[in-house]
Amino acid sequence: MKYKGTLIVVKDCRRALRFYQDMFGLRLKRDNDGNMELTDRIYLQEARYWETFTGKDVIPKSNLSELYFEEADIEGFVKRLETLYPETEYVNRLMTHSWGQKVVRFYDPDGNLIEVGTPV
């Protein structure tokens, strides 16, 4: 068995792709009509498919998992996020943990939780 990546549910793959390109530099590897494979083993699936396949409603901001990224220039990242996506909803704005790592947590446009921290 081989782990292939993490799938997140989105309303619109094109909109989500723009967000992940703008903020994380991810690129499209494959587009299968509402199902996309991005670089770094991230997969996008539109909610209409997810709900059909699972028979379950999508629950944005469920806080059951998060995507975690590291960025040395976290202040620059936060400034880019605030400039490009001013409507972003934050779980916590830029803060420093007791062990010295700076982190910011927020929701992507579809309510998926993201954490960006400085390298540890």
Q: In order across it, which strands form the biggest sheet?
A: 1-4-3-2
CATH architecture of the largest domain: Roll
Number of strands: 8
Q: What count of helical segments does DSSP give?
A: 3
Q: What would you report as the Rg, rounded to the nearest angstrom?
A: 15 Å
Elements, N to C (H/E): EHEEEHEHEEE
Structural category:
alpha/beta
* Number of structurally distinct domains: 2
Report the major sheet.
Answer: 4 strands, mixed
Spans of at least 5 consecutive residues whose pLDDT stays below 50 are none
What is the assigned CATH homologous superfamily of the largest domain?
2,3-Dihydroxybiphenyl 1,2-Dioxygenase, domain 1
Q: Give the termini distance in whole angstroms.
A: 30 Å
Dominant shape: globular
Fraction of residues in H or I helices = 25-40%
Which strand-content bin applies to the residues?
25-35%
CATH fold group of the largest domain: 2,3-Dihydroxybiphenyl 1,2-Dioxygenase, domain 1
Write down the CATH class of the largest domain. Answer: Alpha Beta
